[in-house]
Amino acid sequence: MPEVVVNLHMHTRYSDGSGVHRDIARAAFAAGVDAVIVTDHNILVQGFEGYYKEKTKKILMLVGEEVHDQACDPQKNHLLVFGTGRELATFADNPQQLINQVRDAGGLSFLAHPDDPEAPAFREVDISWVDWSVQNFTGIELWNALSELKTIVPTKLHGAFYALFPALVAHQPIPSTLARWDELLALGRPVVAIGGSDAHALYMSLGPIHRVIFPYEFHFRTVNTHVLTSEPLNGEANRDKKLIYEAMAAGHCFVGYDLPAPTRGFNFSGQGKDKNAIMGDELPAKGGVTLQAKLPAHAEIRLFKDGLLIQTWKNQLSCTHITSEPGVYRIEAYRRYLGRLRGWIYSNPIYLR
């Protein structure tokens, strides 16, 4: 299936980012992603969706929103909203009502940075998702690159170090977020995982050090959501937007950390007795199912069933597992980069019923 590399969850000067939409387009060209989804806080910025072109390159810019209750202190329960076509921030004070409004508008809703701890050295408070009674959301932001940074900067000195060496930051999704995703999947309903950069391109100063913390281009080379569309994009913005959002809603996507090595080309599929499946799909377990993962480079591959690790393959390009047991099956892949084994690929599940 055609693969579209999407960087999502980012901010401009319309909320708390430093750049404008044209800056994001330039960074996307340089990083080589296919599409971006801009999500300013509590404002749906109109007029910037569509294809941007630079010589022979083009990228599709989509505009969503990150909605949260600004009257709440601290501001918990951030929701990424895509594809509604209308402003929904007026419903921010009630997360379930907001999710319902997104659903009624034909949009997608993802719980943003479910675990976003405080970073006292930088006066950053905990803004995790806390209302776990909500239903009918599309999925969760499994890996948020900026939230992960907050877990490793106990002092300003640590912050200065990672500002100078940002490639050392990413290790994997926050473990409690992974565990929460598995818990949600165990409830029997599909929950789509996406990865977001949460790019702000903020200007920071610490003594003599003055620099942009995580420029847009750097972020776009790191945590991306790779979307498998039913047809190739053809350059018609509204059609292509629909294809991307339909695929994301179905869970036909995976989270790839593209800095250690490109993850484009990863595939996780299932072949059953009478039908086949890709990530996000269901298959009957009866009669046996062959699960296969194929990677674009050698890595450690881990297969999970219902949140439990059931098999590991070391330094492999592919793996196969045959089963007739119902369950929720997903893949994680790890590569060594800058001296550490780091999370590289996180698939959405195949559901064997």
Tell me about this structure:
The chain has 353 residues and is α+β, with helices and mostly antiparallel strands. It has two domains: 3-257, TIM Barrel; 267-352, Sandwich (Immunoglobulin-like), CATH 2.60.40.10. 19% of the residues lie in helices and 37% in strands. It contains seven helices and 21 strands. It has helices at residues 21-31, 95-104, 145-150, 156-164, 175-186, 216-220, 237-249, and strands at 3-8, 35-38, 50-54, 57-63, 65-67, 79-82, 108-111, 139-144, 192-196, 202-206, 209-213, 223-228, 253-257, 267-271, 276-278, 282-283, 289-305, 308-323, 327-337, 340-347, 350-352. The strands form three sheets. Strands 1, 2, 3, 4, 12, 13, 14, 15, 16, 17, 18, 19, 20 and 21 form a 14-stranded mixed β-sheet that branches. Strands 5-6-7-8-9 form a five-stranded mixed β-sheet. It has a two-stranded antiparallel ribbon with strand order 10-11. Strand 3 and strand 4 (57-63) form a beta hairpin. The radius of gyration is 19 Å and the shape is globular.
Distance between the termini: 24 Å
CATH-assigned homologous superfamily of the largest domain: Metal-dependent hydrolases
| Total helical elements | 7
Q: What's the number of domains? A: 2
Please state the second-level CATH architecture of the largest domain: Alpha-Beta Barrel
- Summarize the amount of helix as a percent range: 10-25%
> What is CATH's topology name of the largest domain?
TIM Barrel
Q: Tell me the overall shape.
A: globular
Q: Report the top-level CATH class of the largest domain.
A: Alpha Beta
What portion of residues belong to β-strands? 35-45%
Order of helices and strands: EHEEEEEHEEHHHEEEHEHEEEEEEEEE
Pick out the low-confidence regions: none
